[in-house]
């Protein structure tokens, strides 16, 4: 750690948090005087962005924009790790919502103070001094607490100057300092693969001064900084602490949330990366070994159970049964519904959010397998992988060339590309539903009671049993299936051989009409009081019993 003499004052890093559509992006838009809302698909911020703004007072503030969407809770947690102050946006017409509570918890866990911005004070039914925060342990100054708050309208720009002053005042009280001279430290806020410029990552510098030519390590990759751009797309030569910058020169795309550390030489950076990769490989081998061990135990239990059955049943032959499903839905040699997906995203943060949501999948109706995931546009290799497993490709904020889409169509691989997270998971649920087998559903369309059993001569040597009945409910149709029940026990299931009314063969009998019934078992002996049900069987599609939490709100 640096000595106190080396520390200097630096701008506060502020994170805007809150529930979906409470106005976080609109607030940032008003603070930095640039239009972001129109560029965002669906009006929801989908990636961590970082912006430094200079105030009229001469002070600077760096804002992190952690997404407010439920699917991006892990990214919001990263935002709280690197931030000095949290601005909690609460809509005056909506109040405390699930992601509001989640944001408060993230801030508390990181030990970060909160400034509350009550937004949308210009709308009807606005509760300007929202007391619901007290239930979550956030007590505002006006109610005896120590949490500053400001009623604002991001849309109209009301009280934004006051909000900025409260942030600056709190930063002065916190006495935020940093070391501009030490080895560079920081965090990856976002990363992506650019077709023209290669691997890119947004770095928030926390210590030292980042310059062109320096070597930095993040996760399992490193960069010799070839160039840097600020949030306005301007080239910069050095970046001081508490400022964000986009770095060019990474060997691979780092992951959002990775810690950034400077290495004195490229050789050291390579050694560090190699060591970390070997550690990951060792961990994976241990996990794989444990999985193999469990599988071997399961297989041994199945084998022992089969041996017991064979010993008990002697020479009886077993026939393997298979689940019957719609043709073409299940892949080769699959015995149960299965959906395999390849996931491609524009940035690692998006992929993390998608994977975290898919990790909540717990349905037993259809197995969901993730075959691969990566940053970048959809390629022919992705299509080939999906084809091998009779799967599909999911793309988020990425594209696919005409050649790739043509190949997908030729080999029958479904490609789903979306810019809105809601629609991506709508597609996942739709594909899961398509993989489920049809199920049979019975509808009782008619019911009859046997009043008197009797027999009739078909010829001189043959007589058949007949149930003399009355139709009590609905309609009896000759072409449908029938079930005969006696004292609640099913004695027959099948078709009719004959349905007669006054010695005439008919196709249907309506309620209140007497009839003679011969089941497709001429020698079945009817009893008075037997119930005969006419059944219509329908094959209907199933629905998957899983849905992401944010689609349930």
From TrEMBL:
Molecular functions per Gene Ontology: GTP binding; GTPase activity; translation initiation factor activity
Location relative to the cell: Mitochondrion
Membership in a protein family: Belongs to the TRAFAC class translation factor GTPase superfamily. Classic translation factor GTPase family. IF-2 subfamily.
Known function: One of the essential components for the initiation of protein synthesis. Protects formylmethionyl-tRNA from spontaneous hydrolysis and promotes its binding to the 30S ribosomal subunits. Also involved in the hydrolysis of GTP during the formation of the 70S ribosomal complex.
Domain Tr-type G residue range list: 9-175
Protein name: Translation initiation factor IF-2, mitochondrial
Keyword annotations of the record: GTP-binding, Initiation factor, Mitochondrion, Nucleotide-binding, Protein biosynthesis, Transit peptide
A Pfam family of this chain: IF-2
Domain of life from the UniProt record: Eukaryota
Annotated signal sequence range: none
Gene Ontology CC: one annotated term: mitochondrion
Chief place of localization: mitochondrion
């Amino acid at each position: 750690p640096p000595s106190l003499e080396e520390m200097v004052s630096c701008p506060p890093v502020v994170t805007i948090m809150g529930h979906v559509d409470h106005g976080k992006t609109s607030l940032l838009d008003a603070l930095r005087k640039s239009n972001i809302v129109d560029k965002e698909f669906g009006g929801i911020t989908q990636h961590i962005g970082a912006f430094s703004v200079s105030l009229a007072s001469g002070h600077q503030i760096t804002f992190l924009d952690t997404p407010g969407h439920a699917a991006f809770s892990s990214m919001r947690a990263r935002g709280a790790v690197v931030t000095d102050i949290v601005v909690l946006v609460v809509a005056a017409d909506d109040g405390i919502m699930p992601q509001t509570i989640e944001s408060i918890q993230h801030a508390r866990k990181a030990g970060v103070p909160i400034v509350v911005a009550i937004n949308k004070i210009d709308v009807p039914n606005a509760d300007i001094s929202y007391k619901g925060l007290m239930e979550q342990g956030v007590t505002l100054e006006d109610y005896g607490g120590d949490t500053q708050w400001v009623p604002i309208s991001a849309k109209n720009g009301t009280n934004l100057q006051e909000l900025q002053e409260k942030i600056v005042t709190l930063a002065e009280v916190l006495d935020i300092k940093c070391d501009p001279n030490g080895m560079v430290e920081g965090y990856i806020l976002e990363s992506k693969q650019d077709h023209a410029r290669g691997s890119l990552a947004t770095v928030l510098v926390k210590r030292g001064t980042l310059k062109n030519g320096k070597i930095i390590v993040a996760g399992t990759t490193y960069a010799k900084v070839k160039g840097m751009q600020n949030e306005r797309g301007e080239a910069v030569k050095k970046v001081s602490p508490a400022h964000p910058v986009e770095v060019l020169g990474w060997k691979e795309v780092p992951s959002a949330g990775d810690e950034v550390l400077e290495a004195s030489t490229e050789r050291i950076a390579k050694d560090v990366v190699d060591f970390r990769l070997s550690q990951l490989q060792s961990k994976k081998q241990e996990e794989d070994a444990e999985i193999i061990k469990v599988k071997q135990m399961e297989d041994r239990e199945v084998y022992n159970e089969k041996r017991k059955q064979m010993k008990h049943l002697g020479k009886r032959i077993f026939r393997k049964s298979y689940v019957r499903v719609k043709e073409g839905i299940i892949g080769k040699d699959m015995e149960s519904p299965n959906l395999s997906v390849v996931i491609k995203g524009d940035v690692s943060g998006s992929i993390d959010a998608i994977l975290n949501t898919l990790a909540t999948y717990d349905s037993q109706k259809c197995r969901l397998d993730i075959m691969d995931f990566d940053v970048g546009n959809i390629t022919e290799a992705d299509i080939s992988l999906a084809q091998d497993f009779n799967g599909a490709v999911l793309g988020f904020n990425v594209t696919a060339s005409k050649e790739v889409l043509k190949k997908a169509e030729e080999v029958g691989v479904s490609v789903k590309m979306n810019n809105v997270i809601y629609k991506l998971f709508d597609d996942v649920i739709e594909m899961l539903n398509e993989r489920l087998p049809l199920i049979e559903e019975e509808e009782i369309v008619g019911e009859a009671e046997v009043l008197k059993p009797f027999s009739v001569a078909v010829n001189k040597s043959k007589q058949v049993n007949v149930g003399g009945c009355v139709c009590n409910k609905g309609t009896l149709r000759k072409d449908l299936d029938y079930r005969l029940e006696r004292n609640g026990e099913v004695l027959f299931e099948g078709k009719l051989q004959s349905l007669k009314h006054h010695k005439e063969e008919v196709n249907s009998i309506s309620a209140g009409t007497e009839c003679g019934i011969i089941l497709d078992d001429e020698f079945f002996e009817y009893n008075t009081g037997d119930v005969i049900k006419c059944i219509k069987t329908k094959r209907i599609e199933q629905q998957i019993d899983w849905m992401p939490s944010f689609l349930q709100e």
